[in-house]
């Protein structure tokens, strides 16, 4: 919906955005590929070739979330329309592909730690000689990266916000479990054991630290848009899913064997949370980006420190102008 709202033509919005907003149809974003390391999106191999008044799409995608939903009516497909372009980030385009277009095969739903997330699922999809009209191109040829960056920033913070909510729920379950009078070990309530109290305290601190990272990222998006807030978004995205996994693990531990069973939401939540260390960019990509942004300050920091040293020396030697 964000892609259509921000980058769609009036005709694209009329055809796809309105029914999406009304909940009449669903969509899926087809970017990740099976045969390349697509965490670096410049590696994507799906081809988008113009033939007359159509584009022909060929490629194999997987982990396409929502593609299994019977209401899924449209795919946004990332591929290369100009693979020989010397600017690597101008080789890619994003194109609208109706789900009922001939040549599309949903190969299989993928499972996450055994969960198939039916009916939406995360599917492997083959596009073979799929033809769509030229007006299905989003924003223009070679502007795929521009579009996905506009989408991925808000998408990442949405993941983080949901993680905060799940972490709060996990902590609630932890509190209920350890204060249950029927759960006593070595003559004491679970909540009377020091390690359990420490887990509760650490979980609260971890959640609130992560919450403020997300709040700061949201504030920066409001101020400078997603592109200007990539560092703050990256920090939240690298920290929050790992925080959630840690809090879930503590709650699972307090639930004993039940914590890894279907009787509680914890195991399924853990499986879902683990995928978020890959989704919309793996941790390593965000951490590398954050480090590079910080390194840009190095020359300025060095210059400032040198001035401080000069000032200190002048004060010590009595040569400073007070």
Automatic annotation (TrEMBL):
Indicate whether GTP-binding appears among the record's keywords.
no
User: Tell me, what's a Pfam family for it?
Assistant: Acyl-CoA_dh_1
Entry's Gene Ontology molecular function annotations: acyl-CoA dehydrogenase activity; flavin adenine dinucleotide binding
Domain of life, per lineage: Eukaryota
Q: Is Cell cycle there in the keyword field?
A: no
Query: Which residue ranges does the record assign to the Acyl-CoA dehydrogenase/oxidase C-terminal domain?
Result: 142-293
List, in alphabetical order, the GO biological process terms annotated in this UniProt record: fatty acid beta-oxidation using acyl-CoA dehydrogenase
Keyword line: FAD, Flavoprotein, Oxidoreductase
Q: Which InterPro entries match?
A: Acyl-CoA_dehydrogenase, Acyl-CoA_Oxase/DH_mid-dom, Acyl-CoA_Oxase/DH_mid-dom_sf, AcylCo_DH-like_C, AcylCo_DH/oxidase_C, AcylCoA_DH/ox_N_sf, AcylCoA_DH/oxidase_NM_dom_sf
Q: Where is the Acyl-CoA oxidase/dehydrogenase middle domain?
A: 28-130
Which cofactor names does the annotation list?
Answer: FAD
Q: Name one GO cellular component term.
A: cytoplasm
Family, as annotated:
Belongs to the acyl-CoA dehydrogenase family.
Protein name stated in the entry: Acyl-CoA dehydrogenase/oxidase
User: What species does this protein belong to?
Assistant: Jimgerdemannia flammicorona
């Amino acid at each position: 919906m964000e892609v259509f709202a921000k980058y769609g033509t009036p005709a694209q919005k009329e055809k796809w955005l309105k029914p999406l907003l009304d909940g009449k149809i669903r969509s899926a974003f087809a970017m990740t590929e099976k045969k390349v390391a697509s965490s670096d999106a410049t590696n994507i191999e799906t081809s988008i070739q113009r033939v007359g008044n159509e584009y022909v799409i060929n490629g194999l995608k997987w982990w396409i979330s929502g593609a299994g939903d019977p209401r899924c009516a449209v795919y946004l497909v990332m591929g290369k329309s100009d693979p020989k372009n010397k600017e690597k980030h101008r080789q890619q385009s994003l194109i609208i592909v109706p789900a009922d277009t001939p040549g599309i095969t949903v190969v299989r739903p993928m499972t996450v730690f055994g969960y198939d997330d039916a009916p939406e699922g995360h599917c492997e999809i083959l596009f073979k000689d799929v033809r769509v009209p030229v007006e299905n191109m989003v924003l223009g040829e070679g502007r795929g990266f521009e579009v996905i960056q506009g989408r991925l920033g808000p998408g990442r913070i949405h993941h983080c916000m949901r993680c905060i909510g799940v972490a709060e729920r996990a902590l609630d379950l932890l509190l209920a479990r350890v204060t249950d009078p029927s759960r006593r070990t070595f003559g004491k309530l679970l909540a009377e054991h020091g390690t359990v109290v420490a887990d509760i305290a650490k979980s609260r601190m971890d959640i609130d630290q992560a919450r403020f990272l997300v709040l700061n990222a949201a504030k920066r998006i409001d101020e400078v848009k997603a592109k200007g807030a990539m560092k703050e978004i990256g920090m939240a995205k690298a920290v929050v899913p790992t925080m959630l996994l840690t809090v879930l693990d503590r709650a699972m531990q307090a639930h004993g064997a039940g914590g890894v069973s279907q009787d509680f939401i914890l195991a399924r939540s853990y499986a879902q949370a683990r995928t978020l260390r890959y989704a919309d960019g793996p941790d390593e990509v965000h951490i590398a980006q954050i480090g590079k942004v910080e390194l840009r300050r190095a020359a300025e920091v060095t210059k400032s420190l040198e001035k401080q040293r000069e000032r200190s020396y002048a004060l010590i030697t009595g040569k400073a102008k007070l």
